[in-house]
Design brief:
Helix content is 75%, strand content 0%. The protein has helices spanning 3-17, 20-38, 48-71, 75-89, 98-112, 120-130, 137-151. It starts with a helix and ends with a helix.
C-alpha cells in the first residue's frame, strides 16, 4: 500500500475520531505528496524513496519551525509543530542511531578509499545516497567529518 493510500485512510479515521491535530498533519503530508505527483516531469506515482524524502522534508521543516517558535517564546505554535512531528514520525522509516551512522560511514570511507578530509565530497556523495531517509543529513555530515579527521 502506498503512503498516499495510507494517509488517505488515516485522514478518514482522524475525521471520524474528530482528531484535529492528526488531521492537520495528515492533510499537510497529503498536500506535499500531491504536489510532488503533479510537479513538472513527474510520472504521477511516487516511489517509496520519494515518499520517504517528502516525509523527511516535512519532518525537518516542522522541527526547524518548532525551534524558531521556542526561541521566540511562542509555546502555542511550538506545540502545534511538535504535534505534527509526532504524526509525521509514524510514517517515517526507523532512523539510524549515531553508532549505526558511524559504522555505515566507516564502511563507505573504506569502499571509496578516502584518505583525508579532502575526500569529504566523495564520501558525502555516496553516504547521502545510501543513508537517504534513514538518517539526518546533518548527522551523516558530522560522522563523515569525525571519521575523516581521524584518518589525517
Amino acid at each position: 500500500m502506498s503512503l498516499k493510500t495510507t494517509i488517505e485512510a488515516d485522514i478518514k479515521k482522524a475525521m471520524i475520531a474528530r482528531n484535529a491535530e492528526d488531521l492537520r498533519a495528515l492533510r499537510a503530508i497529503k498536500s506535499m505528496i500531491m504536489l510532488a505527483e503533479t510537479e513538472k516531469g513527474a510520472t504521477g506515482e511516487l516511489s517509496a524513496d520519494q515518499e520517504s524524502k517528502i516525509l523527511a522534508k516535512a519532518h525537518k521543516q516542522r522541527k526547524e519551525s518548532a525551534d524558531i517558535f521556542a526561541q521566540q517564546g511562542r509555546k502555542d505554535l511550538e506545540e502545534k509543530e511538535l504535534e505534527e512531528i509526532e504524526v509525521i514520525e509514524r510514517y517515517l522509516p526507523k532512523q539510524l542511531s549515531n553508532e549505526e551512522i558511524e559504522a555505515a560511514v566507516k564502511s563507505i570511507v573504506t569502499s571509496v578509499g578516502a584518505k583525508s578530509a579532502a575526500d569529504m565530497g566523495k564520501v558525502m556523495g555516496v553516504a547521502s545516497k545510501e543513508l537517504a531517509g534513514k538518517a539526518d543529513g546533518k548527522a551523516v555530515s558530522e560522522a563523515v567529518k569525525k571519521i575523516l579527521s581521524t584518518l589525517a
